[in-house]
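Dear Dr. H.,

I hope your travels went smoothly. While you were away I took the liberty of generating a structure for the chain from your last submission, since the lab meeting agenda had it listed for discussion. I wanted you to have the full record in hand beforehand rather than looking at slides cold. The sequence, exactly as received, is reproduced here:
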Amino acid sequence: MTRTILFAALAAAAFHAHANPTVEKNGLLASKDGKTLYTFAKDAAGKSNCNGGCASTWPPFVVANPALADGDFSIVARDDGSKQWAYKAMPLYFYAADAQPGDAKGDGQGAWSAAKAQPNTAKADANGSMYTGGRRDSAY
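The corresponding predicted structure, in token form, is as follows:
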């Protein structure tokens, strides 16, 4: 019985703990393995409002390596203390019914939308550095 519970916990962790988010060719955000990411209109910047049963259908995109947070990709703390990826401060989720990489069955379901990359509006500051809203880089 204990092995079964341990195996189920490890399988769930493997499903949720993907690497850092990526941008697919179609402009949608996805996990490294191509699973579509979603945002929830009822969330606030930096705060997930999808917990309990909601998180069963819309599993949070749990952070495996916090050192990868950079630019528009940040980390938010969930109510249970776990860490979740966010894009422009909006928490990111998977949809449990998406079986294959590239599936986006959750897009438009209620308050849920497939997360889309938004172009950065880079501006040069007085020192000639580029500012994209997340970090400053040397001008190219």
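Two observations you may find useful: Confidence is low (pLDDT under 50) at residues 1-18, 121-140. The chain has one domain: 2-116.

With kind regards,
E. W.
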